[in-house]
Sequence to fold (504 residues):
Amino acid sequence: MALRFYNSLTGRKEEFSPSRPDFVAIYSCGPTVYDYAHIGNFRAFLFVDLLRRHLLFRGYSLKQAINLTDVEDKIIQRAAERGMPIDQYTAPFIEAFLEDLDFLRVLAPEHRPRATEHIPAMLEMIAELQRRQHAYVADGSVYFRLATFSEYGRLSRIDPEQLRAAADGRFDADEYTKEDLRDFALWKAASADDAAAWASPWGRGRPGWHIECSAMIQDLFGPQGVDIHTGGIDLLFPHHENEIAQSRCSHPEGAFVRYWLHNEHLLVDGRKMSKSAGNFYAMVDFRDAKRIKDLLGRGAPEELLRIYERGNLGVAIRYLLLATHYRQKLNFTFDGLLAAEQAILRLRRAAERLSEICGESAAVPEQTTSPWSALSAESLRLFGDALDDDLNISRALAAVFDFVRELNILLESQRPDAGQAAAALNFLVEADRTLDLLRADPPIPGSSASADQKQRERIEALIADRQLARAARNFTQADAIRLQLDQMGVAIKDTPAGVVWQWK
Ligand code: AMP
Ligand code: ZN
Fold:
């Protein structure tokens, strides 16, 4: 079955056909780094991680960018309140965001452009819009002339005329400089005491938010744009509508974006989790014991700390955010988080049972198909097909847990040999390239040292077993042990001085 995505531009699922065969260009709107990112934001990035991993699974090579919006009005205002330059103000939030992504195992994109590093491209695009009569200057600011773009409203299905009525209703005396109230700012004139301002042909100022993404896409991908553009559903209007207007009008020869994919929101008690509503859990709240203890005071269950100590909190949040289809709303609850860990443990138990059998004797590849390899192959087919269908994660996870159930039934009546166990395990390993749930979180500094020590001893023992297997030229068994270590999150390297290992 062909890969299909729901394209917000057409409002239907479409067969995916990138502009170049086997290669996909993706741009994802990243965070505005004026504060710590909350779990809701990470729903957007986990959806993109699933998309990335599935495209890799299907053999595409990728060029993906997730930007960092490091200049924007709120950033400028807060930095000014603290008397800091904006880069100093945003630095800790950027650092925390990148650590959060690691904590959730989000694969790094090829590019992480920062808006402040692409100001020249923004100036160029604005100048081009002005040359083509799509923009005008008023009081040192530059505005996009909305009436000049006949396709405006196509993505959001908003009639620009209705927009005029809405804009009239909200008439704001500050905005009297605009020709038309619907026009939006491309460049904002700075006042004399503004800390963050850049020189431009129109005087000192700063970019509008929308132009940042259009210019970064132009800089990184050229006028042909990207195959897929993603973002939360709240960005569809006006942000993405304005991106289309800016990019298509400055470079009419380019398609800009072929497929628009939007994720739904994470809710808390039925309301969108957002920084401004104050109902948010910052991701950093889940990354160290002290902050988790603060969460216990805000109604979180004690068990949260236990999950963290078991090294499963990052992966449980990952599961929770991934397990609901990206176009459905997801209500965040702590019960959901506890259930997520249980689901992961169930998976890991199945993988451990199989890898133990693999490790017991030399695995001889199967000569004929057995129920074990048949189950494995069929499950992988169902898993891949489900994700091909607009990343249908519910069906993909059903394939995984049906596999575990059927495996457990089979194990009750038969015992596989090492080769059969390896064949069955293959499905879990392959699916885990996309899900990334089998390994525990990397050990947390300061966590229970004794548990750490025990695990270290177990790793050393497995490495010694592997050396013995290699010495006996039993490479199948050696490989099975390496796989087991891999699932524990351990990477090993053979060096002339012996085997060295580290957490992945
Ligand atoms: P922001 O930092 O607010 O610009 O948001 C970064 C990304 O997170 C954007 O793609 C937003 O649409 C997305 N986002 C913000 N809040 C939520 C939420 N509660 N649930 C899902 N995605 C969100
Ligand atoms: Zn954007």
